[in-house]
Amino acid sequence: MTQTYSDTQRMALRSQVKLASEIVAPYWPMRTFIHHNPLHELESRSFHEAVQRGQHLLGGRGYLPSEHYRLYYREGRIRPEHVDAALRPLAQDVSVRIGDRQVSQPDVLRAHLLHGISAPAEESLETLCERAPERDVLTALTDRLHETLRPPSVEERGQEAVREDLAALGQKQTLAAWCDHALGTGLVARINDELIRWCAAFLDEG
Question: Coil, strand or helix: which one is 4?
Answer without folding.
Answer: coil
